[in-house]
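Why do we care about 3D structure at all? Because function follows from shape, and shape follows, mostly, from sequence. That is the central idea of this module. The next example makes it concrete: a single protein chain, its amino acid sequence, and then its structure expressed as tokens.
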Amino acid sequence: MISPQLIATLDKLPPPLQAEILHYAEYLAAKYTPLPQPETLPQIYRQAGTMKGLFKMAEDFDAPLEDLEDYR
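And the structure:
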């Protein structure tokens, strides 16, 4: 393990550089620590037709819009 060598090298550095190395080491530890996996919930399947009758479509839904006559 390189811990004794690492500690010896860190002891030779001035405190501002030691703090910078500590911040970088904390960043690396956070970056490479695997995130906890969320619990997988059972997949809920939708049932077709449950909203039937709740929406009314206008009779002239497919008719051309008067506002767009200039673009024909």
